User: Which sequence fits this backbone?
């Protein structure tokens, strides 16, 4: 399946921003599951590239002139191959993803919940479904600083929270699990195209667990970055001076390309 | 003055088992015996005043108002014979070399895990393992440029490594100031005793930091979290001694993956950062987003090879108490040598068999948190109350992987000035090992002493004191 992606994130500020530096993870990699046909990332600042420890390409943008807004645009064409996930895409052993981070730390309630499941795929699919039933998808209920335990207690969140809770449960029962950020292609209009899901290490392979969509295949997912949690894989992390209040708006479209492949 | 002899079964640094003075202590012992009590009391007061005036204070966490206080300084030096030091030095070199090889390995090929010497889970699930370091090429493959290795002498007379400190080891400023203090108060002692000098440490440190970069004349800075940090005195002291800038995060910025320092004549590129900030706080865009201490973009600059951090990020995985038991195996694996320095036998509570032994022998053992530091969160079995023992029993059962246990070693003693005169007190030793173009150290290290009678806890944060450490230049005196 060939997909067109168009993604725009716009930050607008009360007063001009004086300086800003951002780590931008909006460039997908070629993997056995996705072939990048064409990709372009535009930013208003000077950029340089690096590869982080997880193997994610990162664009580092610095802005040192006053601007009223920052617009990041990513667009391109990606082929999804439909091949299953393999073990070959991590620079280090999966045990790295056994450790908790501040965002995936478990409290007593979450531990108790996680302990009902075991380390096989069927059980983890049940965990995913169970979580989806109990945690309402509710944009605005949480922010990027909310932890897995907090969202679990609240019983509501967005894909990031569902993913953190799933990862926290996996790690608690000894299953390495990692956070994935990316895009999803969906035929329904009300879906947000920027997305997050989890991958868990079972047997000797990674397996997809998209909790929000209760999917355990990644047939319509375009992967941007992986990490221990949101912080490692966030599409944009930045700091700025000046600007006052910030307003952020993200829009993304993933559409099936017409014409020949 | 009268020197109390040590208790039965203890190794004393000054007296041998028959209460004869060891040869390398002869001169000091004669001086102590003949010393005038009034004069010594006066010198002790003088030392207090001088330390206060120098501003050498230590911030004790958890104390009300975070009060700065003096680390008690003891006037009686701890003396190490030339032959003991030769062996220690060789052992420390070997150990630090193997630890650096281990750090390179676990961020590159994982040979030691593949060979089955240590399990993948123990290395990679360790919270100190830093995925962000994966495949990063560092000059000379060095990770811990400055290591502080804690040693004790057991009653068998041998030195044992208690702990490797590979992140931001502190205390070297006290080592240097203690020597200065002794030379100032008792210049006549140094005229007669062949004490190996240590005052070139800042030069060696500067040399080591410059060697961390491949640039011919790199710009080095010391990065401190600021004056509220317990070791701020040391950060400022070392920067001044080396003649480099002491900076805080806000003094640095990153542009095009390069780090610059703001100066009065414009930005100056920085090549080596001797950082005294923990990994997670170095860059708010890579670690803790709330960190105000670090520099946004620093990780990208590091990752792209435009700046060197000393010590490297992610060194903590090798100095963890759960990794410590494997250091002798690392020495055999990477260097194909037998370890010169001994490890303390260690039970890893994560192993079922070890946990059972520990629970059965709790009152004989010392139990420590694998991630703990500063003497917090530990149990000293023989001195613990019933309640403390039962608390630890439940802690161990709940999270066995967080704890290790070791036999209670009897730390050696050394004569120390205390209220009742000169009495033996337990001590340890932290030498500082510098890895640059070669591995170097100054003779000695920081000696910490437990001032309470019978106490084995020497940490400054737990009320321990320090002493000057003398390494003798030859064994004949």
Assistant:
């Amino acid at each position: 399946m060939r997909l067109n992606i168009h993604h725009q994130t716009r930050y607008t500020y009360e007063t001009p921003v004086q300086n800003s530096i951002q780590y931008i993870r909006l460039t997908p990699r070629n993997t056995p599951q996705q072939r990048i046909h064409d990709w372009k990332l535009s930013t208003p600042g000077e950029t340089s590239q690096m590869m982080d420890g997880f193997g994610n390409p990162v664009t580092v943008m610095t802005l040192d002139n006053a601007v009223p807004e920052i617009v990041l645009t990513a667009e391109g064409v990606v082929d999804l191959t439909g091949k299953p996930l393999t073990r070959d895409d991590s620079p280090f052993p999966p045990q790295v993803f056994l450790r908790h981070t501040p965002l995936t730390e478990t409290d007593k309630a979450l531990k108790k919940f996680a302990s009902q499941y075991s380390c096989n795929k069927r059980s983890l699919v049940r965990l995913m479904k169970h979580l989806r039933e109990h945690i309402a998808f509710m944009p605005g209920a949480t922010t990027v600083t909310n932890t897995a335990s907090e969202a679990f207690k609240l019983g509501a969140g967005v894909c990031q929270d569902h993913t953190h809770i799933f990862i926290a449960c996996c790690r608690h029962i000894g299953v390495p699990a990692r956070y994935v950020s990316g895009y999803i292609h969906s035929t329904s209009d009300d879906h947000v195209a920027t997305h997050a899901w989890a991958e868990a290490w079972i047997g000797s392979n990674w397996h997809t667990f998209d909790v929000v969509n209760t999917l355990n295949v990644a047939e319509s997912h375009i992967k941007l970055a992986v990490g221990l949690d949101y912080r490692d894989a966030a599409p944009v992390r930045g700091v700025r001076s000046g600007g006052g209040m910030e307003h952020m708006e993200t829009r993304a479209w993933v559409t099936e390309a017409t014409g020949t492949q | 003055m009268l020197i109390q002899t040590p208790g039965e079964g203890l190794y004393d640094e000054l007296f041998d088992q028959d209460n004869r003075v060891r040869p390398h202590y002869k001169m000091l012992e004669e001086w102590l015996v003949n010393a005038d009590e009034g004069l010594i009391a006066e010198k002790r007061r003088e030392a207090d005043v001088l330390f206060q005036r120098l501003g050498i204070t230590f911030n004790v966490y958890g104390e009300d108002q975070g009060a700065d206080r003096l680390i008690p300084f003891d006037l009686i030096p701890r003396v190490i014979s030339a032959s003991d030091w030769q062996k220690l030095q060789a052992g420390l070199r070997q150990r630090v070399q193997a630890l650096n090889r281990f750090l390179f390995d676990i961020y590159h090929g994982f040979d030691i895990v593949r060979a089955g010497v240590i399990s993948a889970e123990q290395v990679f699930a360790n919270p100190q393992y830093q995925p962000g370091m994966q495949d990063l090429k560092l000059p000379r493959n060095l990770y811990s440029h400055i290591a502080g290795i804690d040693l004790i002498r057991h009653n068998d007379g041998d030195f044992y490594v208690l702990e490797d400190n590979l992140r931001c080891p502190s205390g070297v400023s006290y080592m240097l100031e203690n020597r200065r203090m002794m030379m100032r108060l008792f210049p006549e002692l140094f005229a007669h005793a062949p004490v190996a000098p240590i005052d070139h440490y800042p030069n060696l440190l500067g040399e080591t930091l410059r060697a961390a970069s491949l640039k011919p004349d790199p710009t080095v800075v010391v990065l401190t979290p600021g004056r509220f940090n317990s070791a701020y005195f040391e950060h400022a002291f070392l920067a001044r001694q080396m003649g480099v800038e002491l900076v805080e995060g806000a003094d640095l910025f990153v542009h095009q993956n390069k780090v610059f320092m703001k100066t009065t004549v414009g930005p100056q590129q920085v090549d080596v950062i001797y950082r005294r900030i923990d990994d997670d706080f170095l860059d708010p865009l890579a670690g803790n987003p709330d960190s105000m201490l670090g520099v946004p973009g620093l990780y990208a600059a590091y990752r792209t090879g435009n700046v060197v951090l000393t010590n490297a990020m992610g060194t903590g995985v090798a100095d963890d108490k759960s990794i410590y038991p494997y250091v002798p195996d690392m020495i055999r694996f990477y260097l194909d040598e037998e370890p010169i320095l001994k490890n303390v036998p260690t039970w890893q509570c994560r192993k079922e068999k070890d946990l059972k032994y520990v629970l059965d022998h709790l009152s004989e053992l010392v139990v420590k948190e694998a991630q703990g530091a500063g003497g917090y969160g530990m149990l000293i079995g023989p001195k613990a109350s019933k309640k403390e023992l039962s608390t630890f029993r439940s802690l161990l059962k709940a999270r066995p992987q967080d704890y290790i246990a070791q036999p209670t070693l009897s730390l050696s003693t050394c004569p120390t000035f205390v209220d009742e005169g000169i009495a033996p007190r337990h001590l340890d030793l932290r030498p500082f090992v510098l890895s640059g173009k070669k591995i170097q150290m100054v003779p000695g290290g920081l000696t910490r002493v437990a001032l309470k009678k019978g106490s084995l806890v020497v940490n400054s944060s737990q009320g321990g004191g320090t002493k000057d450490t003398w390494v003798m230049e030859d064994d004949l005196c």
Residues 121-134 of chain A form the longest helix (14 residues).
